[in-house]
């Protein structure tokens, strides 16, 4: 995955689609701060990820329980 950039406005819904290995799961893990990006930054609600933001987001991967 290279040079990914997007924004989602309040009220919008975003879906990540693509073939296996396209980087969908890695993108979600970077957004949720489970993995660190090689470069760049991620902002959620205009802020860097923090514990308060993590408490507002649910992530349910297919292979594991709710984080």
Q: What can you tell me about this protein's structure?
A:
The protein has one domain (1-67). The protein contains 2 helices and no strands. With 67 residues, it is mainly alpha-helical. The mean pLDDT is 85.
Give a short overview:
With 67 residues, the chain is an all-alpha fold. The chain is built from two helices and no strands. It has one domain (1-67).
Overall geometry comes to globular
Rg (C-alpha, Å): 12 Å
| Low-confidence sequence ranges | none
Measured as a percent range, the helix fraction is 10-25%
**What is the mean predicted local confidence, pLDDT?**
85
- Put simply, the count of helices is 2
Key features of this structure:
globular; mainly alpha; 2 helices; 67 residues
SSE layout:
Layout: H1 24-31, H2 51-54
